[in-house]
């Protein structure tokens, strides 16, 4: 149930702050992380091993779709909705330094780590036009 509450909070924050563009924002997840995206934006996700640069991918685990006046929340995912994206690059994050030190024991250790990531460009959202007239969550106008 905590995931559902966080989705409600995200949708109300997006719509309450006046961020109601003509394109619909939505929430979806890759792996164990959720992302709020709109067409034309870039996002950095964890490494997608099977994807190569310039591949077109379809992500169908959509959790929430919101339009100007309505928000649709999936139980657990919204059926028929999908995110279309293009893989822009496969890369590495900035280096994180791990430094361990124990005083008076002459012990210190320094190591670096770079986490792999994937940059996606969101090209479009499809399938949300076919929703029924009665959404799960009605946002006041």
UniProtKB/TrEMBL annotation:
GO cellular component: cytoplasm; ribonucleoprotein complex; ribosome
UniProtKB keywords: Ribonucleoprotein, Ribosomal protein, RNA-binding, rRNA-binding, Signal
Cleaved signal peptide residues: 1-18
Single Gene Ontology MF annotation: structural constituent of ribosome
A Pfam family recorded for this sequence: Ribosomal_L21p
BP GO annotations: translation
InterPro entries: bL21-like (IPR028909), bL21-like_sf (IPR036164), Ribosomal_bL21 (IPR001787), Ribosomal_bL21_CS (IPR018258)
Protein family per UniProt: Belongs to the bacterial ribosomal protein bL21 family.
Protein name: 50S ribosomal protein L21, mitochondrial
């Amino acid at each position: 149930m905590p995931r559902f509450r966080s989705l409600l909070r995200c949708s109300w924050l997006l719509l309450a702050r006046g961020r109601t563009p003509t394109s619909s924002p939505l929430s979806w997840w890759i792996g164990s992380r959720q992302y709020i995206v709109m067409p034309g934006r870039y996002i950095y996700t964890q490494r997608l091993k099977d994807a190569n640069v310039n591949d077109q991918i379809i992500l169908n685990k959509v959790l929430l779709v919101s339009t100007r006046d309505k928000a649709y929340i999936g139980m657990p995912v919204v059926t028929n909705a999908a995110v279309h994206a293009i893989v822009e690059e496969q890369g590495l994050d900035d280096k994180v330094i791990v430094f361990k030190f124990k005083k008076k024991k002459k012990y210190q250790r320094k190591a670096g780590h770079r986490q792999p990531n994937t940059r996606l460009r969101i090209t479009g959202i499809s399938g949300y036009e076919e929703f029924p007239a009665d959404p799960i969550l009605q946002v006041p106008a």
